Amino acid sequence: MTGRVIAVASGKGGVGKTWFAITLAQALAQEGKARGRRVALLDADLGLANADVQLGLAPVLDLGSVLAGRATAEQALVAHEAGFCLLPGRSGSGTLAGIEGAALDVALGLPRQLAARFDEVVLDLGAGLGAAQRRLLAEADLPLVLGTEEPTSLTDAYAVLKLLSQDAPARAPRLVVNMAAGAGAGQRVHATLEAATRRFLGRGLTLAGVVRRDAKVPEAIRAQTPLLTRHPTSAAAIDVAAIARGLAAASVAA
Ligand SMILES: Nc1ncnc2c1ncn2[C@@H]1O[C@H](COP(=O)(O)OP(=O)(O)O)[C@@H](O)[C@H]1O
Ligand SMILES: [Mg+2]
Hints:
This protein is of the alpha/beta class. The chain has helices at 17-32, 51-54, 63-67, 73-76, 101-115, 131-138, 151-167, 183-201, 216-222, 227-230, 235-253, and strands spanning 4-9, 39-43, 78-79, 85-87, 120-124, 142-147, 174-180, 206-212. Strands 3-4-2-5-1-6-7-8 form an eight-stranded mixed beta sheet, with helices on both faces. Helix 1 packs across helix 11 and helix 7 (151-167) crosses helix 8 (183-201). The protein is globular and about 45 Å long. Residues 17-18, 45, 50, 126 line the site of magnesium ion.
């Protein structure tokens, strides 16, 4: 078996990448539960990993332990009651941003290693696109680029799309618009970005979906409880569930 690697990237920080990656993992797990589909979330934000904090976990082992050879990925995985397993990125000692050599090879191999056991492997790539993150993004089966309506987010999302078109011209990325005032506003963001990719990169851009701005999101994060557990009928929960259904259908069709 080999699962699918879905990478969530944005360029800009603070656009909701970690929150979205967690919520997508939970939605994919719920969507695939009846079919026994297994989902893993890899916190690959090498600089500022914090998926474990949003999930209220205090892991003993993490990506740092795995890269240092102190633990296997298997040992570092934590099962969350939301229905997926997390490989935490948080390192008690120092940053992982500058990893190189053997550790870098281990990091780059992790998504595929997890995909041998899981049907869906969601990667939270974190802000910025260093060499390691750029490779992780280019090697993902499905690169998801997350953006908001803010002009700075749009230019950063475009920069990520441009790098991807160079690094992995055959991979078709999809756009997620987060914190949108409404579906229409999100679609306008997509139209703007797609006009740019068509004009300058010579290719279109599929919209994976729009997630509305929702006060329930920061509330759930403060409570360190996943949104689909705490507020399953909130606007943002409904939007992410719809995106997960679309992505699940795409994987069945592929
Ligand atoms: N759809 C949304 N509606 C409202 N707030 C959101 C939404 N998505 C994310 N946020 C808020 O954005 C902040 C940053 O989220 P985070 O996942 O840490 O972003 P990133 O990983 O991109 O830095 C969080 O405090 C979260 O509450
Ligand atoms: Mg983050």
